[in-house]
């Protein structure tokens, strides 16, 4: 059971990483701004002179970075589906694997969005996360034997 939770959690994290990669690859403005802040940081540290570092390099450097993020999107999705399939194999029900992956994806999305993009979420979003996690704990709290006994009683 623990290995299924690990696979489902990793699948959720990789789904969030794929979403971040898609956002980075489709939004050129963020990568260009990141490049320009890196150039400013290097000039301030006196690692390079302003003549050596041209911000015009950021005009073309964002294109290979966007392609790299696009490739990362496909790699993260492929590995995510692999881990999700392994989680389905280890859990007794597909609902447990799905809810665990979804909860991990939401939490990872919040973390990566805050760290990479500086995003913050409203109270209603956190209430939704709490309800999802509550459902996850309820699903994981019921054992497969209890579910089988309920089915036998109905027959």
TrEMBL record:
Q: Where is the chain membrane-spanning?
A: 63-85, 97-117, 123-139
State if Hydrolase is listed as a keyword.
Answer: no
Q: What is this protein called?
A: EamA domain-containing protein
Q: Which residues form a coiled coil?
A: none
Which InterPro entries does the UniProt entry name for this protein? EamA_dom, EmrE-like, TMEM42
Residues annotated as domain EamA: 67-139
Question: Origin, by domain of life?
Answer: Eukaryota
One cellular component (GO) term of this entry: membrane
Source organism of the structure:
Pygocentrus nattereri
Keyword Transmembrane recorded: yes
| Keyword annotations from UniProtKB, A to Z | Membrane, Transmembrane, Transmembrane helix
């Amino acid at each position: 059971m623990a290995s299924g939770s690990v696979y489902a959690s990793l699948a959720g994290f990789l789904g969030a990483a794929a979403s971040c990669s898609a956002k980075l690859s489709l939004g050129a403005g963020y990568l260009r701004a990141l490049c320009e802040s890196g150039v400013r940081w290097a000039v301030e540290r006196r690692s390079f002179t302003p003549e050596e570092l041209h911000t015009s390099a950021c005009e073309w450097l964002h294109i290979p970075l966007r392609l790299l993020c696009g490739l990362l999107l496909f790699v993260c999705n492929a590995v995510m589906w692999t881990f999700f399939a392994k989680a389905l194999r280890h859990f007794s029900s597909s609902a447990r694997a799905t809810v665990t992956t979804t909860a991990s994806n939401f939490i990872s999305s919040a973390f990566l969005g805050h760290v990479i993009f500086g995003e913050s979420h409203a109270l209603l979003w956190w209430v939704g996360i709490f309800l999802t996690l509550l459902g996850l704990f309820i699903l994981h709290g019921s054992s497969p034997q209890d579910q089988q006994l309920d089915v036998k009683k109905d027959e």
